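[step 3/7] fold_predict: job queued, chain A
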Amino acid sequence: MNHLIQVHQLHDEALSHLLFELAQDAHAARFDVAPGVCVGAAILSRGRVIGRGIYQHWGGAHAELHAIAKAAASSTPQAEWDTLVVTLEPCSSTGKTPPCVEAVLASGVEHVVIGSLDPDPRHRGRGVTILREAGVDVTVLESGLAPDMRWGLADIAQHFLDWNSIDRLRRPRPWSIAKWAQTRTGQLTPPANIGEGRWISGPESLAEVQRLRGRVDAILTGYGTVREDDPQLSVRAPGDASNPPMRVVFDSYLHTSPDARLFAPVESSAVEGAGRVVLFTRPGPDSVRARALLEKGAEIVALSPDDQGRLSLWAASEWLWQQGVRRTLLEAGPTLIQSYSDHGLLDQVRVYSGDVAGGRGPSLGNLLMDHRQNARLDRESGSDVVLEYFR
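[step 4/7] structure written:
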């Protein structure tokens, strides 16, 4: 119990500073973990940090597991670990990963300091209860040192509060990320003599997109993009091809060709993978076209039209949710992206502006101007400039 006594002697201000540091470390990964929350954690021994970790990307190991692994690699024996400090209540249910409370209990720490409770009313306080019932001393410090030194969810992860809002829990839908590349002047298609008339982004950005594809449950596009670009929408290295996402096409009249690259065979391997193909269409599709596509392995889902006679994006979102899809990537043309935005279904945006002058075709500049951008990040990827934000 000596370790526990020493932990209690730690001043709340010292713990507050550590929580703030962990929150800032984790905040850098906010776009990679959304709709999850950027969490930071640390294992302490006698007031000294011996292992730190953050939640790095959607579907990956949580911050507590990274901190425990770092502590295990340190020279401090596990018997001397006494405290876990974590910015968010450890999860108590199985999702993309097992519940973190199990790993915390297995670590042997006697004291847990939590920055914020889980905002999900279905889980809020449950992790604390499990830890306390197992004999762990739990402290919750839901406050900050000053307006510019806070770790609360409202300060660093408003998107996570929105994801767990009552309205969204009542009518759940997947988190939607729109991604596109544009020239310096905002065109979505480069000049014909650049990038074979198709490619705007550099190799670093193309690699980033593959990693992003490997971390979503579905890739969404429209028939127009399939017709014009004939994409395969597979996941290739350096992306994680072990569990490739569903590939979804909005195709009202089932015009997708059975010869489209979507149906080209992809050898499942660590290098490349491709998920099932789903075509959203109107009820009563042409039977001949439907049969040809079914023979190619497509799954055809009929959706009722909305008030404007177009495929209902809400119906599509509800179907995807029922299929277990929680995170989607829109790799589509301006019409579908704009429609998602107009329906309030767009949550996150990533735009690659390549080092290319001029260009052809439409622009999504007006959409960028209309959006209220939260947690905005401007960065570089090779020769490209990248803009990311939450809607």
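[step 5/7] annotate
The mean pLDDT is 91.
Residues 2-166 form a domain with the Cytidine Deaminase; domain 2 fold (CATH 3.40.140.10).
exit 0
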